Amino acid sequence: MLFFFVEILSAGCGRHSVISTGSSRELPETLSIAQAMTTFYGNFDPTKQTSTVSFSKADSVYTDGEPMTVRPLFQAFVNDTGKQSFFLLTYAVPTRDEKYYCHACAPTIGVAVFTNDQAHWVLSASNRTVTDGGSFGKPPQSIKAS
């Protein structure tokens, strides 16, 4: 799954943000889903464990301008090249129709990579609209990279 995640990330990323975790002695794992989703989408509802977003035509998605509900799909801490990273994979479906239930109803997949720079988490790469994947409003259950 991680290989697929990296492949998705290479499809296009941008935007940099910083999240402070306090002193540099704190463990890098102090980055929470709430912090990551808030940085990536600008909001997070801790009760529903979701964010909301409206994609624009520039995002080249099927549902531009429509409010979307975004949920975490996969997350992992990775220690690569001596720096701690946090990978977040998300999926978004239209808010108006939480059921979004048809064979062609594929959620919009997003990806973000945060890197730990001592006491700060930096959103070093992201793309909210990498692709659409899955069906019946659900993301893919298993992902194979070729």
Overview of this structure, please?
The chain has a six-stranded antiparallel β-sheet with strand order 1-6-5-4-3-2, sandwiched between helices. A hairpin with a 2-residue loop joins β3 and β4. It contains two helices and six strands, in the order αβαβββββ. It has a single domain (2-132), classed as 3-Layer(aba) Sandwich (Protein Transport Mog1p, Chain A). It is elongated. It is 12% helix and 38% strand. It is mostly beta strands and 146 residues long.
Helix % is 10-25%
Low-pLDDT stretches:
1-28
Strand order of the largest sheet: 1-6-5-4-3-2
What is the number of independent domains? 1
**Overall pLDDT metric:** 77
The CATH architecture classification is 3-Layer(aba) Sandwich
User: How do the SSEs run, as a string of H and E?
Assistant: HEHEEEEE
From the spread of the alpha carbons, the general shape counts as: elongated
Largest sheet: 6 strands, antiparallel
**Could you say which structural class the secondary elements and strand pairing correspond to?**
mainly beta
Assembly state (oligomeric):
single chain
Q: What is the name of the CATH class?
A: Alpha Beta
The number of helical runs is 2
Give Rg in angstroms.
Answer: 15 Å
Determine the strand fraction and express it as a percent band.
35-45%
Count all strands and give the number.
6
- Distance, first to last CA: 11 Å
* CATH topology heading: Protein Transport Mog1p, Chain A
How are the elements arranged and paired?
Layout: H1 2-9, E1 18-20, H2 33-41, E2 51-54, E3 67-80, E4 83-94, E5 108-117, E6 120-132
Antiparallel strand pairs: 1-6, 2-3, 3-4, 4-5, 5-6
